[in-house]
Amino acid sequence: MLDEQLLRYSRQILLPDFDIAGQQALLAATVLVVGAGGLGSAVLPYLAGAGVGRLRVVDGDHVDMTNFHRQVIHKQQGEAKAVSAARFIEQLNPGVMVEAVVQRFNAENASQLLGGCTVAVDCSDNLETRHLLNRLCFEQGVKLVSGAAIGWEGQLCCFDYEAGSGCYQCLYPAGMEQNLNCSEAGVMGPVVGIVGTMQALEVIKMISGVGIAAVNRLMLFDGKTGTWSAMGFAAKPHCPVCGSRR
Question: Can you tell me the distance from the alpha carbon of 233 to that of 231, in angstroms, rounded to the nearest whole number?
Fold first, then answer.
């Protein structure tokens, strides 16, 4: 590790359980972030600031006026969100390699985008993408941190796909969820930021091996009361995604 890196990351290296080993794990990691909107706007600065070695940002959308109250890394209407996010990261931490992919995450590009990744972060806004990302992460052995926010509420869960742990399909069987989005239901900006920041923390924990990630726990945030609660869930033996391993 270079002297400049030791200085830049010194405040987290000082943590006894994190130390040099944790920082080196971050520097060696590649993280895929699917979605550079509200959640991504909180996830990306903290992962870049922490020193994740490579960030791959995937988003086919472009910035519009309705985004600015929560998607705080973007400045210019009409610009591709992935490109805008990449420029923000480069300015924040030039030592992070960032790849901007101006595409929607889909069945055709998913396997390639996940290639070589340590962890994937679900910052998407639709159920089709969430289920596809979950299935491909399971198949390719990539850990997943999933987050969502709508209205005054948010949620967070991690999936390591180890024996005995569940997947997103176990938690939310396809076709049984209500596909709400911010354009229809609205969202309070700081709620998205809180969930996204928590996602970044879970990614750092999963990469470094420090702490206990929210695996088999659904973390629920209520913005009106400012409180978190947790709900455990179990792997389903006949899950169409991860049931095959059992």
Answer: 7
